Batch of 3 targets.
Target 1
Amino acid sequence: EFATDLGSTVGAGVSGTIWFAGLVGGVNYVVVRATGGMLVTHGRLREAYVQTGDTVTLGEPIGQASERLYFGVRIDGRYIDPLRCMAGGTSVTRRAILVPAPSAKSASGTS
C-alpha cells in the first residue's frame, strides 16, 4: 500500500483489459489484465472510472484515490513485489500514475 493524496487521479499501471472493476468488502478495486498473464490490482479507490471489459493504456485514468492505494502485481498467479517491477523496467512502471488533486483554490478558478 502507498500513501496518496485524497482525490488524486489513479492511472492504470499497465496497458490491458479491465478484468474486474467493482467492490470487494465495500471498497473499489480495479484489476487490469495485461499480456503475458500479468494482473495489476489498483485497490482502495474512492471511485472507479472504468468497467469490466474496458481497454486501458498505461497511465490512463481509472479511478480516484482514497488516502491509501493498494497496488498489487501477479504474474501467472504469483504475487510479486510491485516495487521490483517499477524499478525493473517491465510493463508496470512508476507511472501507476497518481495525479495530484487540484487544490481548493485552483478548482474554484481563483489564484
Target 2
Amino acid sequence: YEISACLVGSEMCIRDSYTTSLAVHIGKELGKRPVPSSRSVTKPVTSQIELKLLPSGALTNAKVTRSTGFNEIDRAIYQAALLASPYPEPPEEYSGRKQFRVELIFAPERL
C-alpha cells in the first residue's frame, strides 16, 4: 500500500510531515498482520480514515470516510488506526485542530 494524508476540509490532498506521519503510523500497524482480501485487489483502491486526536496524540475517534470497496480491508484499516494510538502529538501549527484525514492507497504490486 502507499500512503498519503489530507487535512480535513481541504479540497486537495495536502502532504505535509505531520499528516504523513499519521499515515505512516497506521501503515506500520497494518504491516504487522496480513490484510484480509488484499489478494482480491487487482487495481489500486483508496481508503480514507478520519482521526480525531487530543493534543497529546491520543485517539478519541476513528471513522472510515471512504471505503476501498472491500469490507475486510476497511475493517483492517479501522483496527490498525485504533491500535496505532497514541499518535505523534500535533505540532504547534495544528494547535486547536482535532480532526485529520488519512488516505491509504492499496496497490496490488505493493501487497
Target 3
Amino acid sequence: HFRSHLNLGLSYLARAITAARTRAGAAQSDSSGSAAEANSRKAGRHFDQACELNPRDALNFYNRGRLYELRADNVRAVSDYKRALSLLRRNSSFKTRLRQRIQRLEAGPR
C-alpha cells in the first residue's frame, strides 16, 4: 500500500536529515555521511513506490521533492514540487510556501 511506502520514506528522510545535520555540525564523519546516504537511498526507493502507487497524492511528490532538495538535486526537487502543487486543489498556506520554495530553488544559490 502506498501509505506504508510514504511512512517508511518519511522515516528514512528524517534519519537522513539528522545524519546530514550531525555531519555538518561535526568534523565530516564518514559514519554520519554513510548513514545519511543509506537512509537517503532507502527513502528514495519508498517515495518512488508511493508516487508510482498513488500518482494523485501531492504529499508523495512533495516529500520526494524534499529528498531531492536534501541531495541538492534542485531540478528534480522543483519538478516534484510543481507536480505536488498541480495536485493540490485548495489555496492554502502550504501551497503558498510551496510556490515560494520553488521560486527559491529556481533562483539558485545566492
